[in-house]
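Researcher: Structure for this, please.
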Amino acid sequence: DATYAIRAAIRTALLANTTLNSTLVGQKVVDLAPSGHATPYISLATSSDDFSTSTEDGQEFEIDVNVWHQPSSQTPESATARDIMAEVRKTLHTAVLSLASPYNLVQMRVTNMIGPYRDPDGLTLHGIVTVRALVDHS
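Model: Predicted structure, token format:
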């Protein structure tokens, strides 16, 4: 299962983007943020399907890069979340990432961007950048 390898490669790529890294707070790119984690930060949600052929093993991943930001003012302030989303797209769309052996990234594309929209708490802005990745198990 290449889940850990693709998540680690994405996390490394995002943290290597100095513009993005300087904007995020705390642990910055997390699986699940603890309650009360300072914003902005990114969390990753991953799903996968089999992408094997009769001779090759592989997985197709859909990774939601969730952007969370709680503006300090009462007015809607989506620029920070939108800027982070744009940097995520710039970093990951058609990226060539090195994965831990024995996995190889075949292709990566940003397929969708949603938001940012206001979360049910009425305070937090949430944007999603969806990435599709094909990974070969060599």
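Researcher: Any notable elements?
Model: The first strand starts at residue 29 and ends at 30. The mean pLDDT is 91.
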